[in-house]
Amino acid sequence: MSVKEEKQSQPQTGAEEPEGNSPGLIPVYVMGKRYEVPEGLTIMKAMEYAGYRFIRGCGCRGGTCGACGTVYRKPGDYKIQVALACQKTVEPDMYIAQMPFFPVNRAAYEFNELTSAPEDVFKLYPELFRCVACNACSKACPQGVEVMDAIAALKRGDISEAARLSFECIQCGLCTSRCFGELAQYHMFQLARRMYGARIVPRAEHLTDMVKVVNEGKYEDILEQLKGMKEEKLKKLYQEREAEPVSAGEDWTPKDKTYL
Ligand code: FES
Known about the structure:
By secondary structure, this protein is an alpha+beta fold. It has 10 helices and 7 strands.
């Protein structure tokens, strides 16, 4: 994530202060410089309040894109901690630094030419075997992914397990920043998940059948009708539809079977 300091200690647009009682100001240090920011703000909003502007890669602000990897340390503690700037709220005297872009190896491949064989992963990412199982990657993950275990799964060719273990990865790159084997774990995991989704997980047979029915045009008329409806009518129809109960079993079907 790239940031630019514009003005000091001036609230910026988008840096909302918490509602309710006027919050107290707390000191934080951004890249070594002291600022007073309202408590309760996320690191991202606190930085904006302090006068920083996010000029590139500030992402989703919702904890899903991984663009805002941040390291911080608290006073009296040697430990470097990690967080997503859009999720973690500031604490007094935090020392905060944004992670720069890491120029990691992202292998180029034509996915259709790959199989689900572990050798394909090994060929694209031979540095996988530089992992010495120090576990610094797992400790650096703000998502709680067991990064080292997922890498171990890949090393033994278990793509399904690597995909499962890395499911929560949002590719922030903090694991890579701590890895002295210089692995780009998150790119390896993305490949594993692609292989798993496209080549390993069993196909849902009912989905194949349904795609066939759709392609044969069974729903063309109703889709045309829906497209021609006024928004209010469409909303009403949606709200009054018979929804599948949360506890429904596999054999649940709606009362109106016209479009089954
Ligand atoms: S901005 Fe997307 S995860 Fe923080």
